[in-house]
Amino acid sequence: LSRGLASSASSFAPIKHVTVVGGGLMGSGIAQVAAQSGHEVVLVDVNEKVLEKSKAAIQKNLSRVAKKQFKDDAAKGDEFVNKSLNNIKLSTDLPSTVKNGTDLVVEAIVEKIEVKHKLFSSIDDVAPQHTIFATNTSSLSVTEIASVTKRKDRFGGLHFFNPVPVMKLLEVIRTKDTSDDTYTTLMAWGKAVGKTAITCKDTPGFVVNRLLVPQLAEAIRMMERGDASFQDIDIAMKLGAGHPMGPFELADYVGHDTTNSIIEGWHQKYPDNPLFEPVKALQKLVKEGKLGVKAGEGFYNYK
Ligand code: CAA
Ligand code: NAD
């Protein structure tokens, strides 16, 4: 959509400047796809050390994209990597970054409501009027996250998937308060960063995680019952259902701390739903620090 297609009463304008908060797994991927598609990006995290790590990860993943997109022209590939990197600035000062003018803030920090509340409270008063706030939460209520701000109409969910540069889906979560302009702008931005955007209501897990997380849990329960080994369950779902990864490979990839806290959070809120029953093997892995690929060990060993 261009400005001209919006109705005259609408304040819809395309996003040019993006602030991504959290330079971890997801935030660095979100900053990358935004920069790749020509947006000015500021990536914010708690300290320089984390930010340098994020930048190194982005550079590595941009090179992977360049290798694929410009396989016959290394010079063009280098140009793509440098141009994209130049679109990204790093900062540890979120309020100043936002105050200086940004069209969209995408939050990708830890999955804890009180930490997300603190973050959005710290920028609501200093952000320009038109600035849209979005959260990449996997499992929390977008409405609850937005509740501490005075811009509930300019607030939505932008749920990306890991690895962000590769996965083509974006879930755009529309709360009851999200305005038409905000929703249209977020859908258009999703397209601008190269994703296929779908619309979801603000329900637990939106579409993908609401279906995927219970499936991962059910696979682990199947192993716990001794119906099949986890290796065989993975083979079965790859060869029998055409999934790119089996459920145990995928759970290791997502991280058991993430999956376990999603299930426990939903169980607390919806104790009667058997799909959200906590999973013993998952809790044990978290206790032992075997969080999956990122820890070098989960169901499988990566050391
Ligand atoms: N950045 C850029 N490129 C990347 C990348 C990254 N981080 N990771 C992988 N790639 C590229 C590789 O370079 C490779 O490119 P070529 O095809 O040109 O070789 C391509 O992606 C495939 O990678 P690999 O060959 O290394 O491995 P693969 O074929 O097994 O694919 C995968 C890897 C894309 C991760 C695939 O296994 C897959 O789709 N797995 C399922 C992932 C999934 O379900 N993600 C969602 C998790 S749930 C979630 O994210 C939501 C939540 O809230 C928890
Ligand atoms: P991560 O732990 O890799 O990264 C989080 C980053 O946020 C860290 O670098 C941390 O230093 C930074 N951070 C924490 N508090 C901050 C603050 N107050 N200000 C600035 N930076 C801060 O986590 P992740 O896996 O990238 O997840 C981030 C969010 O994305 C979570 O809400 C998660 O639920 C969601 N998510 C995760 C996945 C996944 O597969 N891991 C997929 C989709 C969505």
Automatic annotation (TrEMBL):
SUPFAM superfamilies: 6-phosphogluconate dehydrogenase C-terminal domain-like, NAD(P)-binding Rossmann-fold domains. Residues 17-203 form the 3-hydroxyacyl-CoA dehydrogenase NAD binding domain. Keywords: Fatty acid metabolism, Lipid metabolism, Mitochondrion, NAD, Oxidoreductase. It is found in: Mitochondrion matrix. InterPro entries: 3-OHacyl-CoA_DH (IPR022694), 3-OHacyl-CoA_DH_NAD-bd (IPR006176), 3HC_DH_C (IPR006108), 6-PGluconate_DH-like_C_sf (IPR008927), 6PGD_dom2 (IPR013328), Mito_3-hydroxyacyl-CoA_DH (IPR052242), NAD(P)-bd_dom_sf (IPR036291). It catalyses: a (3S)-3-hydroxyacyl-CoA + NAD(+) = a 3-oxoacyl-CoA + NADH + H(+). The keyword Ribonucleoprotein does not apply. It comes from the Eukaryota. Its main location: mitochondrion. Pathway: Lipid metabolism; fatty acid beta-oxidation. Residues 205-302 form the 3-hydroxyacyl-CoA dehydrogenase C-terminal domain. Belongs to the 3-hydroxyacyl-CoA dehydrogenase family. This is 3-hydroxyacyl-CoA.
